[in-house]
Amino acid sequence: IIMRHRYYRAMAEICDYATSQLNARIIILPQNIEKQENRNVPAAANKMIRFSKNPESIIILNENMTPERLKGLYSEMDLNIVSHMHGLIYSTSQMVPTLAIVYEPKFIGTIQLLKLNGIEIDINKINRFIAIKKLIKIWNLRNKYKEHLKKENANIKQYAKRTSLLIHKQLKKH
């Protein structure tokens, strides 16, 4: 509970900083939506907003969305802060600079694959100082990150294509 409390507080402080200092609009795309009294409730987002000094500046899209719609929404952002693997994949595949809140090792593998070391924060060590420092760095270098992601995504596609061809070749032998 303490870790979650620290996470919600840090996320709220990131949002407050982004709205006040970067003139950002905050849109939360929840990955986990609970059904309560016949309405969709993004539980974690609501807990996070309680810590915000400016909750009215945060928009929560609390509807279940198809993966295509989510990916499309991620692509419209200038910068994404994600805490779920799907968000990391959607965001980086659309060349959107991303700050990743890491709670599972698979995040690190994806970050290393994209050669983006430094965009992550361990959820167990998150605090507003670390998070805002990383947010500022990514924000200031967002155009470089976009170019980097464009190149690395192309490299990954080529690698995946070669792997697919090798598998296809092996299947033909059997």
How does this structure look, described?
The relative contact order is 0.12. Strands 5-6-7 form a three-stranded parallel β-sheet, sandwiched between helices. It has a two-stranded parallel sheet with strand order 1-4. Strand 5 (80-82), helix 4 and strand 6 form a beta-alpha-beta unit. The model has no long low-confidence stretch (mean pLDDT 88). It has seven helices and seven strands. It has 174 residues and is of the alpha/beta class. Helix 1 crosses helix 2 (43-49) and helix 1 crosses helix 6 (128-140). It is elongated, with a radius of gyration of 18 Å. The protein starts with a helix and ends with a helix. 57% of the residues lie in helices and 13% in strands.
Keywords:
two-stranded parallel sheet, 7 helices, elongated, alpha/beta, three-stranded parallel β-sheet, 174 residues
